[in-house]
Every structure is written in C-alpha cells, then in structure tokens.
Amino acid sequence: MLTKRLIACFDVKDGKVTKALKFQNNIDIGRAEDIAIKVYEDKIDEIIFYDITASSDKRKIDIDMVRRVARHVFVPFTVGGGIKSLEDMYEVLKSGAEKISVDSMAVRNPAIITAAAKAFGSQCVVLSMQVKKVAVTESIPSGYEIAIDGARVFTGMDAVEWARRGEALGAGEICVNSIDNDGTHKGYDTDITFKIARAVNVPIIASGGAGKPEHVAEIFRDQPDGVSGPSAAIISSMLYSPLIERNYSVKEIKEELLARGIHMRPYV
Predict the structure, then answer these.
(1) What are phi and psi for residue 41, nearest 5 degrees?
(2) What does pLDDT average to over the chain?
(3) Which of 64, 83, 101, 261 matches a 20 to 30 Å C-alpha distance to 107?
(4) How far is Cα 181 from Cα 188, in angstroms, rounded to an integer?
(5) Are 6 and 266 in contact (CB under 8 A)?
(6) Which helix (H) or strand (E) holds 29?
C-alpha cells in the first residue's frame, strides 16, 4: 500500500510567503526560503511553491527564489506560476525543482501539458486546478467551475471534464484546490475531490481548507464505493498561518493520522 503524503504549499509574492482567505486579502508570513527550511527540517514529505502573481502580471516565475529554496530543501519540490513554455519549464527544473505545476497557461494552451510530458515525463507535470462550486448546468454538470489567474477569471469549464482531459493530455498528477474552502480551516471540499478521484487514474492532491488533523484524515479515507482517497494533501495553514486557531508540527499531524489508521510515512 502506498503511503499518503503531506505537502506544504506556499503562495509566494515578491519572495515572501503570503496567505489569504478564498484568494483575497493576502497577508505576508515571511521569507519564502526561511519558511521552506523550517518545514523541511520538520520533515514534510513534499513542498510546492506557487508564484501567485506571475500569470496575472504576465511575467516569468521568480527563478532566483526557486534557486534559493532548492539549495536548502531535499524533498520533492514542485513549482508553478508564470510558466508559459518548455523553456520556462526547463529553467525551473534546472534551478532545482523536481516537478512543474501548470494552471492558467494549461487552460489557455492545453498542448503544453502534452509537450511537457513528452519532454520531461508525466511524473514531472502537475495539473493544478482552481475549482469553485456553482450551479449544475449542461456545460458544468459536476457543479464545479474552473477559474484561472488566481481565481480572478472564470472559464466556463467543468472541473471533472478538465481533470479527465488533463490526464489524457499527459498530466501525471492533479491538484484540486477549492476556492470556496481555501483559507477557511473548515476542511477540504470532499465532494469535488472525490468526484475527480473517481474520474481519473492519476494521483490526486487535495488542497484548500485544512485546519485540523481530522480534516486530513477525512480526505485520506477511502470511500464506501471503493474509491481511494487522494494520495496527498496540502496542509499549509496548519503549519505556519497566524490566521488559524493553532499551528501543528508535521510530527503531530503524522502521529494523529497514524493513530487513525491512515498509512503514512513514519516521522523519523
């Protein structure tokens, strides 16, 4: 049985980690490399960095920031934001990242998923999806719509259909980020996370809303119909956000998950 993974995900702006509620009203937390070193030393399983204004500002990702972080962390490191071409991807990988997250650009140019998978391997390509609960319509039968550019632009695309298409194009992993639950600390959106888990055969990362270890345990549990929970969960706010009731160490979270019967990599 594969172990579940805990991921620290950082939204970065101007070299600083920033936190928001439902993608709005960001506050700065600290320097990106400092927080990355802290969670790495706390033995997080993986790290994701998103340069959150690169796409909306129409600029390249902050490569210097990627290099600074990569010098200090030695766990799988995913980077996204402002990636527009294979050349951008190569530069990110050359700077120390192991995976590339594509989001807004993948919606605008889906062929970039296939090109990246062919050039670097599907295992390097993470399709990140910003999803929002909406009315069920003929064009959005899942009741969840895809947004881009930091949830500023809504696309009219159905989230489940986009996940299926992303897998077919070559994405090796899919990150499902709930706009509605982001920063609320009330738990993940289990509905859309499991809808997508049922629709695809690649690993799923749950994102948006974790505030307590029980939220992580809930999203990791297999469903009554036999569908496996996501293979990974983003737990950022639980680790370092001043907006949450209390912060947890990676050790505390893993120990509670193991006690609840969730198959985790031990904290050693």
Answers:
(1) -65, -25
(2) 90
(3) 64
(4) 6
(5) no
(6) strand 24-31
Integer Cα distance of 217 and 223 in angstroms? 12
Q: What is the pLDDT of residues 81-95, one digit of tens each?
A: 888 899 999 999 999
Give the class (CATH, top level) of 5-259.
alpha beta
The percent helix, strand, coil of the chain (3-state, each to 5) is 35, 25, 40
Q: What is the DSSP string of 149-183?
A: TTTTEEEEEEHHHHHHHHHHHT-SEEEEEETTTTT
CB contact at 8 A, 196 and 213:
no
Q: Please name the amino acid found at residue 233.
A: A
Token representation of residue 25: 């009203």
Say if CB 47 and CB 56 are below 8 A apart.
no
Per-residue pLDDT tens over the stretch 139-163:
999 999 999 987 889 999 999 999 9
Question: Which structure tokens are listed for 243?
Answer: 């907006």
Q: Domain boundaries in the chain?
A: 5-259
Tell whether pTM > 0.70.
yes
| Cα–Cα–Cα angle for 181, 183, 187, rounded to 5 degrees | 50
Is pLDDT at 174 greater than 90 in this prediction? yes
How far, in Å, CA of 35 to CA of 128, rounded? 22
